[in-house]
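Internal QA ticket QA-208
Title: Verify multi-chain structure generation after dependency bump
Assignee: T.L.

Test input:
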Amino acid sequence: MNKKAEEQDTTATETLNIHGASLSRRSFLGVSGSLLVSLALKPNLGFANSAVTNSLDAAAPNSWVEIHADNTVVIRTGKCDFGQSSIYTAYRQIVAEELGIPVDAITTVISGDTDRTPDGGGTFGLLRTNVLNLRKVAAYTREAVLKLAAQRFGVSPDSISIKDGILSAGSKRASYGEIVAKQALTLEIPVEGELTSFRGLTVAGNPPLKDPADYTVIGTPVKNPIVRPKVSGELTWVGDVKLPGMLHARVIHPATLGSTLVKAGNVDKSRFPNAQVVAINNLVAVVSPDEWEAVQAANAVAAVTQWSDWAGLPGSAQLQEHLRSQVDWNEVPGTAGRFNSGDAAVQASRTHAASYFVPYHKHAPIGPTVSLAEVTNGTITVHTHSQNPQFLRMAIAKMLGESEAAVVIRTYPGPGHFGRSNGGNAGSEDEAVLLARKLNKPVRVQWMRHDDMQWSTQSSAMLSDIRIDLNDSGKILRYEATHFGPPMQDDRPIGALLANLPTISSPSPNNPSPVHRAEMYVADSWVYAGIANVAETGHGTYQLGERESPLKVGLRDHSMRTPIQFQQNFPRESAITEAAALAGTDALEFRLQHATDPRFQALLTRLQKESQWQTRPSPAKEDESATVLRGRGVSIMFRDNGYWACAATIAVTPATGVVKVEQITLVADPGIVVNPLQLKRQAEAGCLMGVSQALHEEVAFDQSRVTSSDWYSYPILTMAEVPKLNVVIAPFQGAKIYGQGSESANALVPSAIAGAFFDATGKPARRLPLRPDYIKTLLL
Amino acid sequence: MTVISVNGEKREVKASPEVPLLYVLRGELDVMTPKFGCGLAQCGACSVLVDGEEVRACITPIAALDGKEITTVEGLPARWQQQRNLADDAERLHPVQQAWIDKQVPQCGICQFGMMIKTTELLESNPTPNDAAIVDALTTSGPSPHLCRCGSYAAIKEGIHHAADLMAASGGDKS
Ligand code: FES
Ligand code: FES
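Actual output:
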């Protein structure tokens, strides 16, 4: 039946109120039918630029859930998959659970695309707050279907139960599909917020949610349906997209992070007949219909392109000293920790005081960033891999001075980049747009390995002073931490900066956007409830070199996995380990004494058992002439309502300075475990990335540029260095909150490894990474 | 003109002889599973089999490949089918791919094409590798270690052992 015929067959529309959402129903004579759950756009929200107005798929651009007469279900989310699989596993489980349908009934997950998904927002904290939108939508939907079933059965909704997609009351039964058949049902859900803001839209209201005690789908090890198309090669990755008539571009980024263009080089047409140089202010690129020609020609042109000199960075070798004495920490207001309490002037019997340092890290995706852009009939379409497509859409529109309605972001699988694009861009998207507009042809911008290392954002460094006062009996009387570091959320696209076009503001103390401020917050949640006196302070500054750079570039920073918390957990847990030694107490026992929350007690006791922890004070007092020294360390962390503990065993070879991590035991009580299989894989992987950061990673830079440019100058972990890994998921029974995965596992590994080094050698390693040259200086 | 066999099919290549295989496969022949990771033989994202041996497509000019047989992940199911003389079955994957699904190996997955290629090379010569042989294959045997940023190495190890089991269990000798 065509659409027109359907319309003619409809009877009058009926509207029902479902906990503040509104369900409208039209019957028609066709066999199909569906329930479409969509946005209720309040007229006063000013949604001139909402997804509705730039829809390519006019049928259902802004629906969250669609239930079809054949019992299949489609869900849509503005969030994307970054390899953790949550939107294909946990999200389906959570929606299936609320609806009371089998998880396999959700056959399709549409994600990210700005013209085909309803809510926007960034892909972070997926199971923390982000999934709440779909969970509430599913709850509204179930309530609506219950109401329809009640009418059909002639009973009250309370007397209907739902199991495996079947609603029943006594002898009366109907599937979801049967309830929606032969009707056009629309459920409009109330929302708040702005679609293209950093956090996107939030579903409002409070529909009744299923009691976790009744869960049957959540908690099961559902496999990730995307793995098969990934390993079979059927999936189109962002780098695989081909647009008709597209040009391949290579960007020739400036010689330094502050250089402006003096003169762009020319293409030697005898060698590269189809290549062309394009310059938009300081954005210089070479394009060609042939990719290899673009690569070769760009190399040749780069060699003869002239840039101004610039030197405005301290150099990574001087970074600690620079943060200590060259930065004016009064420019940005300090912030106090949320758990500060007690007295500053306690009478200490012994004190541990030391400084700790975490260097800049790279997100370092295995594939450098790549995007495509095309302009057709005034619509700018960007094909990319982004963790916040609606925010990217806003930034592209802003850069071009266009309406957001003119910009569409399409998303694809891509290399995991761990938060780099949670504010929209990862690099290359805006460059593709600018080149496509200028050349009036579709353009694909593929960064090379060196572009990705040298021109992407980085996770910023932190210098921390910790002071721990002990009383006579070796307990902590007072904990004081002062953290100094640049901000971590620069979401300005690099192409807009190079082309000198309008964009959002860089991190500063007066940035109107709370996530883009320069203040340094205390992000490492306090875990030692047994300590009465706590004083934590954060001191922020501007990004290094940004204000000095004529491009306003310098070292651009961006959150990575557990932003700020990683950098603050390392000093805290390292110092606690050293304070335990000062008290003559075992490092794990010391944590048991101070982390008095029963869930930490249970976690640490479990860790003791799982890691076969031998209780004794550090250091291990090995024979110092031994060729290999062994030790073990422990760390704990609280994040997203999840409790995490880690034990590491390492072997140090003093002669070479090599640290080998032999075993990692991780115990997690993350709250409700939605999918134990995927959580375990996420945690294992996060853990290994943490080992990589602990042993190898530090961004090198001189006074002008990032000098880490490839996998030799920015090494990461290889399989040869993988320790024995034991990840234990031990959730507290009765938790009400969904547990998250890999990020926390990532952050607490380095401090456990540093603790193990102290145990093995008696020498504290107070900075990362534990590379041989540094280790040798410690053991001299 | 260079002629190569790609996943069992003879392909005439228009690109000039110095162009790296990766650009020919992806640009000219539409074979997309070899990925661009570094272009420097440092990561393994672009790995393919050339006459059964793992080669980094990003630095190998096609001039060196005239007449050779190239297998990418797209061609693994057919390669397995042929090796074991199995009936045509469009659903059947190579045991290495199947193991990657069974053990849910990938996180983002971008490195896994190269990992599966390297694993196939390993298992074809050593059907029951121990951990040391696996680590050697994925770190020291080639021009560089195969890198996984997501940290899926533990899952990859499990996947390789499982793939070895699947291959052993599927009966029939290697031809
Ligand atoms: S892309 Fe070929 S080895 Fe990295
Ligand atoms: S799975 Fe993401 S790089 Fe290996």
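Spot checks passed. Chain B has two domains: 2-74, 75-169.
Status: verified.
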